[in-house]
Amino acid sequence: QVQLVESGGGLVQSGGSLRLSCSGSQHMFGIYHAGWYRQAPGKQREMVATITSGDMADYADFAKGRFAISKTDDKNIMYLQMNSLKPDDTAVYFCNAYAIWDSSIGYWGQGTQVTVSS
Q1: DSSP 8-state class, residue 84
Q2: Rounded distance, CA 3 to CA 97, Å?
Q3: Are 94 and 21 contacting, i.e. CB atoms less than 8 angstroms apart?
Q4: What does the pLDDT look like over 14-72, one tens digit per residue?
Q5: Which of 7, 69, 70, 92 could cysteine-pair with 111, CB 3.0–4.6 Å?
Q6: What is the DSSP letter of 75?
Q7: SS3 of 48, please?
Q8: Is the torsion defined by CA of 31, 67, 109, 27 positive or negative?
Q9: How far is CA 27 from the centre of its chain?
C-alpha cells in the first residue's frame, strides 16, 4: 500500500518561509507525476504546484515567483519551498501522486497545516 506522508507545516509570520516535505515509497516520484494542493476553510482544494516524473514543474499563478517544487535525486521525497508567505496562504497542504501509466491510480497524503499570521 502506497502512503504519502507530509511534514513541515506550522505557524509562520507573514513574509516568512516554510519547506514542506512529502515522503513516498522508494523512487516513487520517478514513476509518478506529483503535486501539492491546498484547501483553506470554506474553499475548494486548489492546485499549488505540480511536477512530472521527468521534473517538469508547473505553478498556480499565486505560487509563481514565491514557491518552488522539487524532488530529491533518489526520487523518494518531494518538497515545496514556500517563501514570502502571506496570510492568504493559510491552508491545509496536501501532496498527491498518480501513476504515469494509469492516472486513475493516485494517492493523497493526510495534509499538513500551514498558518501564516499577519
Answers
A1: S
A2: 10
A3: no
A4: 999 999 999 998 899 999 999 999 999 999 999 999 999 999 999 999 999 999 999 99
A5: 92
A6: S
A7: strand
A8: positive
A9: 17
CA distances (Å), origin 41, targets 59, 67, 115: 21, 21, 12
Confidence at residue 1, expressed as pLDDT on a 0 to 100 scale: 76
Question: Which string of DSSP letters, residue by residue, matches 2-19?
Answer: ---EEE--EEEETT--EE
Question: Across-strand partners of 46?
Answer: 38
Cell of 82: 514556500
Task: Extract the C-alpha cell encoding 37.
Answer: 494542493
How do beta strands 10-13 and 112-117 pair? Answer: parallel
Q: How far apart, in whole angstroms, are the C-alpha atoms of residue 98 and residue 75?
A: 14
Give the three cell numbers for residue 13.
Answer: 509570520
Q: Quote the distance between the C-alpha of residue 65 and its chain's center.
A: 16
